[in-house]
């Protein structure tokens, strides 16, 4: 794990790093010492580790909860090289949709393919970050919606260190089988008028989670329009289960 | 409006009253003076104005938010006389269910009948309570699930003083038309394994609400098993919209 730079602002220390070929960023409270809960964040499709939605949430997890937060670029995103196989599949899928195929199953197949790389990557990032003195082996939470849900469900299912997860904007096609292996508390976000994930698919993924404590929050609006008050709820959810 | 008795405990003043034939109870902060937000609460079927679920929530609205809270007995419930018409319908409905009819439409029809009495009753209670110096004409919220939702939806639709409502455990059969006239913010509770309200019916009632801000909270468990953390959310919801 190589740290390439670090900056601080408004009480948050931000450190870019790379682990093998994976570019990442770690946020911790300024002057943090000793173990603390850690949130792993998964970004959305076409986004990256420092996308505005990731950054805004990460800052609040750090400043209001004292947590550490880590996010890495998904293959083919952010500071990672273009991935020829993924690009080829994306191009093929576009053609198949234009030829009349349904988008949902194609996205699901693609996310399952990417998850086979990201699950081991994220687990090795977790190993490395928990070695740091200012993070340590505290409880771990996961936050990810959209692509971050499609990749997050298999990650949370595979990783026993994750004790609570906020997921959503994803459908059962992609990950119902993995969801059935998740038993930790989950807060699950559905956008009632989601133009990308059919409502039934989102509800079916929530239904598939094996967690005894799971709570569905559905709000009007399109895929990208999660209301601001849900972040307040996310903070309380993680505080309740990790702090 | 005649007040028959008053007691205080742990910072909450409780006053029983009757208005015409309606027995009710008002809770306010001890020593309250001047206007404040008021929550109208509707109890569940077979329950009454001081049922444990009403009482526990009312106390927290008073002590944590400084609100006033009012609840009255629904006709045929609590301190009200038996209602021969309702009893006859209930007996008939039991027979019809045993003869193979679906329960849902029968409950819906019954709740619509009761609502024709409770909506004007609750509005006159609101008039009277807002005349009191320690309540005044502040913003009004409504809380009611199950029967309290079936009766609450037409009440909230009819009463412009209500600015925010927590509803749930109710289905679209009973009140979708009234729901389509509700435009205030709503927090709507669904129990994912509700044995009395089919899941689709609950989701359809949420869907029918015309509110631009509405949020669905669904949790695993049966009709009576709303998790405790939802009350924390209810308090924040009312604080956000009424305080």
TrEMBL record, chains A, B:
Keywords carried by this UniProt record: Hydrolase
GO molecular-function term, one example from the UniProt record: carboxylic ester hydrolase activity
Coiled coil ranges: none
Oxidoreductase is among the record's keywords: no
Gene3D superfamilies hit by this protein: alpha/beta hydrolase (3.40.50.1820)
Family matches, as InterPro entries: AB_hydrolase_fold (IPR029058), FrsA_esterase (IPR050261)
Family membership noted in the UniProt record: Belongs to the AB hydrolase superfamily.
Record's protein name: Alpha/beta hydrolase
């Amino acid at each position: 794990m190589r740290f390439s730079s670090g900056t601080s602002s408004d009480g948050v220390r931000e450190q870019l790093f790379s682990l093998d070929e994976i570019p990442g960023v770690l946020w911790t409270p300024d002057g943090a010492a000793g173990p603390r809960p850690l949130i792993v964040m998964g970004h959305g499709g076409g986004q990256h580790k420092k996308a505005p939605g990731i950054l805004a949430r990460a800052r609040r997890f750090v400043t209001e909860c004292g947590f550490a937060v880590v996010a890495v670029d998904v293959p083919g995103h952010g500071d990672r090289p273009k991935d020829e196989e993924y690009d080829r599949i994306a191009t093929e899928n576009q053609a198949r949709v234009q030829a009349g195929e349904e988008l949902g199953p194609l996205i699901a197949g693609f996310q399952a393919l990417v998850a086979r790389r990201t699950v081991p990557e994220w687990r090795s990032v977790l190993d490395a970050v928990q070695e740091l003195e200012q993070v340590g082996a505290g409880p771990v939470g996961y936050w990810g919606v959209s692509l971050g849900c499609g990749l997050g469900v298999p990650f949370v299912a595979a990783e026993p260190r994750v004790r609570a997860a906020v997921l959503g904007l994803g459908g059962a096609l992609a990950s119902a089988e993995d969801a059935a292996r998740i038993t930790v508390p989950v807060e699950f976000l559905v956008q009632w008028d989601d133009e990308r994930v059919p409502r039934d698919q989102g509800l079916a993924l929530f239904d598939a989670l094996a967690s005894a404590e799971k709570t569905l929050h559905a709000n009007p609006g399109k895929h990208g329009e999660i209301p601001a008050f849900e972040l307040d709820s996310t903070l309380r959810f993680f505080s309740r289960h990790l702090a």
